[in-house]
């Protein structure tokens, strides 16, 4: 909408126009509810411009080249360096050159009104929006306000940090040139994916990890295999170290990183991939009795605890900081808001109903787009044991599966499924290896659907594909 009213009333007001906010708005409008969407940055949010889309656009040529190099008859044709300019240009295309015209058109197309500016709660069901020109818009929601403001990268408060101009995930995915030397602090998903990209594009990467290894939230072998590949590619991975201070003496000069033990590492850029914080510090939460700057606690419909009208969807509720899970929550919340607006009784106890985010508890899938890829859904062995389940881990060397040898010579990978021995269902599955990201949805169905193991036996994998690993895992479980 080109000229939204200074004072306006809507059925639903959505604060934040990333994929999560867009999906809440879409579900609300599909139910016939008038909807306003408020955004202070680009319509489309973090995922579209600084996370999912640009990072995967950067990673795809890296992984495609690695796969091609493992296939005789093709490997000799791809031995040269990547075309950095072409890789970055393709990234720019997928980030829409950091312009949101297409996303604006999409919201316009579903009939949502867009308010550009900073949105803040001012009381129950009321939102103020400060536009870039200083105009104040006052919005009232008849039924619901949905907070979909996402999260931001955390940069630790270290000596010298202000002058060091560190990268976060935003700078790492939007950089215009390859740094000669890049220090990455942190070994989670952002750390390993960005190490994969920039190492392949020519940077000398040093990873500084406080803990014992990479990808600490996945099965240990995932981080081990990804770390092995990064090391073979030339990255220097140091575990059990912490950064004590950073300094950049001149604006365009090198960064000096001082470790706890006094050792110094010099780089051209430093990326902190050390966690996320909620974007709730300037939302006016105090006006409705909530604490600013905190994660918002919600029920399974994403309604904020203690309220009947406020929803927190996506990263801000800290249930699963993943775009696909946020969009899943948005569909749940949108259905809930629409049902309440229509006065439809809700089956609050129906865990598989349209108004319950059941999958956020035990079936959260994630793919790490490194070489090799790592993918998981559900619980790890350690998590299942801590939760008190009686379980068994079943492991399979992916190199022993016929499809993996056809996929690439020298294939290295591993699969694990966690079986609940009392219920004979799967609690978790992890795959690591080239090309395994597309296997994950089958695992997600098995875990989310609580498919009995004896029924999975009848889901026959096609030969010769890597998915035949399912047969090998089930054989190992049956024959033990």
From TrEMBL:
GO MF entries: oxidoreductase activity
Coiled coil: none
FAD/NAD(P)-binding domain residues: 10-324
EC nos: 1.-.-.-
Enzyme class at the top of the EC tree: oxidoreductase
Pfam families referenced in this protein's UniProt entry, alphabetically: Pyr_redox_2 (PF07992), Pyr_redox_dim (PF02852)
Keyword Transport: no
Domain Pyridine nucleotide-disulphide oxidoreductase dimerisation: 364-470
Cofactor entry: FAD
Keyword Lipoprotein: no
Record's keyword terms, sorted: FAD, Flavoprotein, NAD, Oxidoreductase
Family: Belongs to the class-I pyridine nucleotide-disulfide oxidoreductase family.
Protein name, UniProt field: Dihydrolipoyl dehydrogenase family protein
């Amino acid at each position: 909408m080109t000229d939204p009213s200074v004072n306006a009333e809507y059925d639903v007001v959505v604060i934040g126009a990333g994929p999560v906010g867009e999906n809440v708005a879409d579900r609300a409008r599909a139910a016939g509810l008038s909807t306003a969407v408020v955004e202070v940055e680009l319509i489309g949010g973090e995922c579209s411009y600084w996370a999912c889309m640009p990072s995967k656009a950067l990673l795809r040529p890296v992984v495609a080249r690695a796969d091609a190099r493992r296939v005789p008859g093709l490997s000799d044709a791809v031995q040269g360096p990547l075309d950095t300019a072409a890789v970055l240009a393709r990234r720019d295309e997928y980030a829409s050159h950091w312009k949101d015209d297409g996303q604006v058109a999409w919201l316009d197309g579903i009939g949502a009104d867009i308010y550009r500016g900073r949105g803040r709660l001012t009381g129950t069901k009321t939102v103020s929006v400060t536009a870039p020109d200083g105009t104040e818009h006052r919005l009232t929601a008849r039924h619901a306000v949905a907070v979909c403001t996402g999260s931001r990268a955390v940069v630790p408060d270290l000596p010298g940090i202000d002058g060091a101009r560190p990268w976060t995930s935003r700078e790492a995915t939007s950089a215009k040139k390859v740094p000669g030397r890049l220090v990455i602090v942190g070994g989670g998903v952002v750390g390993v994916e960005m190490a994969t990209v920039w190492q392949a594009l020519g940077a000398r990467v040093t990873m500084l990890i406080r803990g014992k290894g990479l990808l600490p939230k996945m099965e240990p072998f995932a981080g081990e295999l990804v770390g092995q590949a990064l090391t073979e590619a030339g990255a220097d991975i140091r575990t059990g170290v912490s950064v004590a201070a950073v300094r950049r003496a001149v604006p365009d000069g090198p960064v000096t990183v001082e470790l706890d033990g006094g050792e110094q590492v010099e780089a051209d850029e430093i990326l902190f991939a050390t966690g996320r914080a909620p974007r709730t510090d300037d939302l006016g939460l105090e006006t409705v009795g909530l604490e600013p700057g905190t994660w918002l606690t919600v029920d399974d419909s994403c309604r904020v605890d203690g309220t009947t009208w406020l929803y927190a969807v996506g990263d801000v509720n800290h249930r699963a900081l993943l775009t696909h899970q946020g969009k899943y929550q948005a569909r749940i919340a949108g259905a809930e808001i629409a049902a309440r607006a229509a006065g439809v009784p809700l089956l609050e106890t129906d865990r598989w109903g349209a108004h319950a985010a059941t999958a956020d508890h035990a079936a959260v899938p994630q793919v790490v787009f490194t070489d090799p890829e790592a993918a998981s859904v559900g619980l790890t062995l350690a998590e299942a044991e801590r939760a008190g389940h009686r379980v068994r881990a079943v492991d399979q060397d992916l190199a022993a599966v016929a499809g993996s040898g056809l996929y690439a010579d020298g294939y290295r990978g591993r699969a694990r499924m966690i079986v609940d021995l009392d219920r004979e269902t799967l609690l978790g599955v992890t795959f690591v290896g080239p090309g395994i990201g597309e296997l994950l949805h089958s695992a997600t169905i098995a875990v989310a659907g609580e498919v009995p193991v004896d029924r999975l036996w009848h889901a026959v994998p096609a030969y010769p594909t890597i998915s035949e690993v399912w047969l090998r895992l089930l054989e190992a479980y049956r024959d033990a």
